[in-house]
Amino acid sequence: MEKNFLFIMTPVQIPDAREQLSKALEQLTELCSRTRYPRLWKLTDKLNSMPKLPEEKLRFRRIYRSVLGIINWVLGVLLLMTGLMEPEMIILLAAGAAGYGVGTVILWRRLRKTGGIINLLLGLLLCFGALGNPDALGRMLYLGIPALVIGIASLIPWRRKKKNPYAPTAETLLSQRQEMAVTRVLFSDGGAEIDTGGQKQPVSYNEIVCIIASKDLYLLGWKDGLTVLQKADLQEQTAGQFAAFIRQKIAWIEI
Question: Packing angle between helix 90-110 and helix 55-85, nearest 10 degrees?
């Protein structure tokens, strides 16, 4: 007896549909990339499978780098202050600038709040000292002002929101899905049939790349594009029955 699985389209009203569809698109992109560049993905998987360092070693490495950043910062400040007091000592200025720069970068990445506080205090101290005694300490502004700026910048709560590269495509697919261009999709032993405005288009399973199954949706990737199906739109049979059937026909990925 032939098995049929019929989806009758209804509007998508799932709150996190875009997030589910974005993850499905990411999986589909990876699958296509793996098919096209198998050697590159083989190397990537090999690198990812390499054992990571134990947590103790990672913690020691973080502490070591943080201490190294503080030492570089302190030595850089001392050399810069000495070089600014003696402008002809170019070597001290260069070495101090390098040490201060390296230390500041490490503190920005490892101890941003601590680095911000010490740079802010240093900047305020040097700026007030230079303004109070410009004849003797005026050159300290060349270090005080940058330190003040870096300190303020370090203490600003930078929150960089990561952009999801698949979100715009997911939004477009959902918008197209809401227009209900496709009204019915039928899966049978012989293949799939997509009904678009009364025009039925047969699709063989060889033309379907895969189906990505999320919590509430199916993303059908085939030769003419992408089709979004809702699990709730499956008639009579269950999602488990559909999964058991379609896995024998085409590639199936669950997320």
Answer: 150
